[in-house]
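Progress note, sequence design subtask.
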């Protein structure tokens, strides 16, 4: 397991904090991601309900990826902290390399909990689920 953080400049010359966790692609390590999610959302002054929604959403995103994840490669979770938004990218190299179905119940749950949800797959089989939760439910237009 590795953990590191870094700051990257935005186009507005502000700095965003980025925290990345790499864990074994096993459900036994998901409690680490839930705890990190809660701590980082609290840092952005999310409400307790918003924090719990994010914890569940990150857990659900991992649950979508882990069944097909290659066990020899890590599950990566990247948190990007903005003034009123937390973006979470959950990424795993999978055997099939397919994104989750957007018409599934799990996708509906993710959208309800996180607000903005997207998924992509790279040719190497890496699947990324991106969650964006705005504090107070305010999405930027």
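Output:
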């Amino acid at each position: 397991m590795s953990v590191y953080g870094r700051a990257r400049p935005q186009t507005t010359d502000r700095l965003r904090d980025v925290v990345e966790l790499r864990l074994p692609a096993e459900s036994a390590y998901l409690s680490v991601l839930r705890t990190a999610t809660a701590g980082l959302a609290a840092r952005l002054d999310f409400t307790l309900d918003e924090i719990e929604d994010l914890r569940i959403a990150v857990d659900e995103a991992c649950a979508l990826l882990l069944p097909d994840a290659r066990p020899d490669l890590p599950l990566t979770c990247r948190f990007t902290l903005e003034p009123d938004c937390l973006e979470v990218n959950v990424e795993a190299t999978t055997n099939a390399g397919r994104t989750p179905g957007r018409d599934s119940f799990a996708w509906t749950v993710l959208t309800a909990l996180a607000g903005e949800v997207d998924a992509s797959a790279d040719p190497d089989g890496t699947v990324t689920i991106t969650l964006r939760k705005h504090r107070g439910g305010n999405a930027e237009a």
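The chain is about 30% helix and 35% strand. Work on this subtask will continue into the next period as scheduled.
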